[in-house]
Design brief:
Order of helices and strands: HHHHHHEHHEEHEEHEE
CATH class of the largest domain: Mainly Alpha
Number of strands: 7
Structural class: alpha+beta
Radius of gyration: 45 Å
Shape: flat
Distance between the termini: 50 Å
Strand content: 5-15%
CATH architecture of the largest domain: Up-down Bundle
Strand order of the largest sheet: 2-4-5-7-6
Length: 465
C-alpha cells in the first residue's frame, strides 16, 4: 500500500508540474503581458514616444510565446476552447490597436481616442478569458489536493490497522527465532551439553562446518603471518634498491672522470700491443660498469616524458644511425620493411629511442656470430582501441626459452651472464608511460620478435588490456 501510495503521489505531482501548474503560470503570464500592452498603448497616446512601441512589440512577442506554451501544457477540451477564443480575440485586438496607433501617428487624435475606447472593451474580454482559463486550472489543482487528502487518510487508516498485525507477526517470528535458531546455537556453544534430538542432524552439520571454519581461520592466520614476513622483506629490498640507486648515482661521476682520463692517456702515450689490449679491456669494463649504473638510475627514476609531434619512422632511422658502428662490430645487418612513413604520434623522442635501442642491443648480444634484424612498420586498427602505430623488431638469434617468457619484463631478470635484467623492464615502462605497449610476439629457434605499439594522435591513449 505504501508503494502504491508513493507511486500515485509521484504521478499526481508530475501531472501537476507538467500540466496544471504550467497552465496556471501561462495564464498568469498572458494576463501580465496583455496588461503591459494595453498600458504601453495608453502611454504612446499621451506623448507619441516611439520607445513605447518598441516595448509594446516585445510584450506582443512574449504574449505569443506564452500562448504557444499554454497550448502545449493544456490537456482539457474546455481549456482548448478558451485558448481558441483568446487567440481569435487577441488577433482582433492587435488589428484594432494597430489602427489606433496609426491614427495617432497621423495626428488624427479625436478618431484615435474614439477607437481607443473600442479596443479597451476588446482588451477586457480577452483579460476575462485569461482569468477564466486560470480559474479552470486553479479548480483542477484544488480537486487534485482533495483527492490526495482522501488517499492519505485511507493510507493512514490502513497503517494504523497494520500495527497490531505487525506486532503479532513479530512476536510469532521471535518465538521461532529463539526455538529454532538461538537455542540450538547456544547448545552448540556449550560443548558439554547435548544438542536437541529433533535438530541433531542440522546442528551436527553446522558443528562440522564451524570446525572447518575454525581450521580455515587458523590457516589464514598462518598465511597472514607469512605474508607479513614477506612484506617486511620487500620493504628491506626496497630500501636496498633505493640505496643501490643512490650509490650508483654517486659512482657514475668519478667513473666518467676515470673514463675521460683513460681516453686522454691513450691518445698521449705510445702503447705497445699488450698495453693497448689492457687499455681496451679496461675501457670495455668501464663501459660495462657505466651501462649497469645507467640502467640502475633509469630504473629507480620514473621517466619524465617530454612529448613532441614526431613520426616513429624518423625515430627508427635516428636510432639506427646511432647504433651503426655497434651493428657493424657485431656483424648484424638491419633491414627496414616500410611501405610509407608512420603517421605523427605524441611521443618523447629520446625515451622512445632508448626503448628501441634496448631491443636492438639485446638482439645483437643474443646473436654472437652475427645475424639479421628486421624492423617492420605498419598501422593497424585494433577494436576498440582504434589505429595504432606498430613497430616489430625481429631477429634470427636463438630466441628466448619458453620457461623465461613470463619473466622477461620483470626487473633484474636476465638470460645473459653479465646482464642487469633492466633493459626490457625499462623499455616496457617507457612504452606504458606513452600509453602504448611492448609485447613479445613470438620466440623460438628461429629468433624472437618484439612489438612496440603507440596510439596515433587522433585515437588517444590505448590502455593495456
Amino acid at each position: 500500500m505504501t508503494l502504491w501510495y508513493v507511486r500515485t503521489t509521484q504521478d499526481m505531482f508530475q501531472s501537476l508540474a507538467e500540466h496544471d501548474i504550467q497552465a496556471l503560470f501561462s495564464a498568469q503570464g498572458l494576463e501580465r503581458e496583455l496588461m503591459a500592452q494595453q498600458g504601453l498603448t495608453t502611454y504612446y497616446s499621451q506623448d507619441h514616444n516611439d520607445a513605447w512601441l518598441v516595448r509594446l512589440n516585445s510584450h506582443h512577442k512574449q504574449f505569443e510565446v506564452l500562448l504557444s506554451q499554454a497550448r502545449q501544457s493544456n490537456y482539457l477540451e474546455e481549456g482548448r476552447e478558451i485558448l481558441n477564443s483568446i487567440e481569435s480575440g487577441y488577433l482582433r485586438y492587435i488589428y484594432s490597436r494597430n489602427g489606433v496607433i496609426a491614427l495617432y501617428m497621423k495626428g488624427q487624435n479625436q478618431q484615435a481616442v474614439l477607437l481607443h475606447k473600442d479596443i479597451r472593451e476588446r482588451y477586457q474580454s480577452i483579460y476575462d478569458l485569461c482569468e477564466q482559463y486560470k480559474t479552470l486550472y486553479q479548480q483542477r489543482i484544488i480537486m487534485t489536493a482533495v483527492s490526495y487528502k482522501e488517499k492519505a487518510q485511507l493510507l493512514t487508516i490502513l497503517s494504523f490497522s497494520a500495527i497490531p498485525v505487525s506486532a503479532l507477526f513479530a512476536i510469532w517470528l521471535g518465538l521461532i527465532l529463539v526455538k529454532r535458531i538461538l537455542d540450538p546455537i547456544r547448545h552448540l556453544a556449550k560443548k558439554e551439553e547435548a544438542l536437541p534430538s529433533h535438530l541433531s542432524g542440522e546442528m551436527g552439520a553446522l558443528s562440522n562446518r564451524m570446525q572447518i571454519l575454525v581450521d580455515e581461520v587458523e590457516h589464514a592466520y598462518e598465511m597472514l603471518q607469512h605474508s607479513r614476513d614477506q612484506v617486511v622483506q620487500s620493504e628491506k629490498m626496497a630500501t636496498v634498491g633505493k640505496l643501490a640507486a643512490g650509490v650508483a648515482h654517486s659512482i657514475r661521476n668519478p667513473l666518467t672522470s676515470v673514463k675521460m682520463r683513460l681516453f686522454s692517456l691513450e691518445r698521449s702515450l705510445n702503447l705497445d700491443a699488450i698495453q693497448k689490449e689492457d687499455f681496451d679491456v679496461i675501457s670495455e669494463e668501464i663501459r660495462h660498469l657505466d651501462t649497469i649504473i645507467r640502467n640502475f638510475i633509469e630504473f629507480s627514476r620514473p621517466p619524465k616524458l617530454r612529448p613532441q609531434q614526431v613520426s616513429p619512422s624518423d625515430l627508427v632511422d635516428s636510432t639506427l644511425t646511432l647504433l651503426v658502428h655497434r651493428l657493424e662490430a657485431s656483424c648484424v645487418m638491419v633491414t627496414i620493411c616500410r611501405k610509407k612513413k608512420l603517421p605523427i604520434v605524441n611521443a618523447d623522442p629520446e625515451q622512445f629511442k632508448e626503448a628501441l635501442m634496448n631491443l636492438i642491443l639485446n638482439a645483437c648480444e643474443s646473436m654472437i656470430n652475427g645475424g639479421k634484424i628486421s624492423i617492420t612498420e605498419d598501422v593497424v586498427t585494433i577494436i576498440p582501441h582504434g589505429k595504432m602505430a606498430i613497430i616489430t623488431v625481429a631477429d634470427n638469434g636463438p630466441g628466448i626459452p619458453s620457461a623465461f617468457k613470463d619473466e622477461i619484463f620483470k626487473p633484474f631478470h636476465s638470460t645473459k651472464e653479465e646482464g642487469t635484467g633492466l633493459g626490457l623492464s625499462i623499455a616496457n615502462r617507457i612504452m606504458t608511460e606513452h600509453g602504448g605497449w611492448l609485447h613479445l610476439k613470438s620466440s623460438g629457434p628461429e629468433g624472437a620478435a618484439f612489438v612496440l605499439a603507440l596510439p596515433l594522435e587522433e585515437t588517444g591513449t590505448w590502455l593495456r588490456s
